[in-house]
Design brief:
It contains four helices and 18 strands. It is mostly beta strands. The strands form three sheets. Strands 9, 10, 11, 12, 13, 14, 15, 16, 17 and 18 form a ten-stranded antiparallel β-sheet that branches. The protein has a four-stranded antiparallel β-sheet with strand order 1-6-3-2. A four-stranded antiparallel β-sheet has the order 5-4-7-8. It is elongated, with a radius of gyration of 24 Å.
Length: about 280
């Protein structure tokens, strides 16, 4: 799989420099090149499910660095057969080369568990640093119809607005997760909606579903819908995760999300149900 590497090679902000200086405090006593790898928050516009951002901080003895990103299982198999030193040589031969200065990288298309391996070099001396990123590999699970009361509620039309939607699935750390990608962005109102906002929930196949996200003070789960109200900004579907209200109906092959629509100023549309009706499993 092709990796996308974006190197931000400009001088780092003061806070970033401090972080790397902390890693270099022992440079006077270092006897070999070495790197410290930090996980960073992603810049806006990237898919956090398959993208990671790292800061690579070399010590004072590092002359050059080489970075290779590949599936962790592939790396482990290579090391098991050939050894760590051979893998370091592979990173130098196949990886991206950088000078021995702090680098910030954004690495994309990482659907699965990936190892970001950095080899620090000084002369003939090499040391290895590693960061493991657990990307989420979403796959289509079902086609169906998503029906929301949001747009009719906002536009005072009454009833529901329905559109075709694909439900995706991924297994993450033994949990069965499902995603309605780009949520309201698929409803056909491009002037009011934006991509990048997903409804994700855990479901083991029975009645209970658990929307993913941080709960508010009432125990509800706010989910940004991607619908931008022209006056009030982003609308969130605030879901009640109680299985008495939000659940899977085996009889109708339908997921029911009971919630209200909120903006920063408060409730915009009162409680009702959003629905996803499965029409075809893939």
């Amino acid at each position: 799989m092709k990796k996308i590497f974006y190197a931000l090679l400009a001088l780092l902000a003061a806070a970033a420099v401090v972080g790397c200086e902390e890693a270099d405090n022992g440079a006077a006593t270092d006897t070999a090149p070495a790197v410290t790898i930090y996980n960073l928050a992603l810049p806006e516009g990237y898919d956090a499910d398959v993208t990671c951002s790292v800061r690579i901080c070399p010590n004072a003895l590092t002359e050059a660095m080489y970075v290779l990103t590949e599936l962790l299982t592939d790396k482990e198999a290579y090391v098991a057969e050939n050894g760590e030193e051979a893998y370091a040589a592979k990173v130098v031969d196949e990886g991206d080369a950088y000078e021995g200065e702090t680098q910030e990288l954004v690495l994309g298309n990482l659907a699965g568990k990936y190892a970001v391996t950095v080899v620090a070099v000084r002369g003939n001396v090499r040391t290895i640093g590693e960061y493991v990123f657990n990307g989420i590999a979403w796959a289509p699970y079902a086609k169906g119809l998503y029906a929301s009361y949001c747009f009719p509620g906002i536009f005072s039309q009454g009833g529901y607005k329905a559109w075709e939607q694909v439900l995706e699935h991924a297994t993450v750390d033994g949990r069965e997760l499902y995603r309605l990608k780009n949520m309201y962005q698929n409803a056909g109102y491009p002037q009011y909606t934006e991509a990048g906002h997903h409804l994700i929930f855990e479901w083991s196949g029975d009645k209970a579903i658990m929307p993913q996200g941080e709960k508010d003070g009432n125990g509800y789960v706010p989910v940004a819908t991607g619908f931008l109200h022209p006056s009030y900004g982003m609308i969130s579907l605030t879901i009640d995760p109680d299985p008495a209200y939000s659940y899977y109906s085996a009889e109708n092959d339908t997921f029911i999300f009971n919630g209200c629509l909120k903006v920063a100023l408060g409730t915009l549309v009162d409680w009702n149900n959003d629905l996803f009706l499965i029409q075809e499993r893939l």
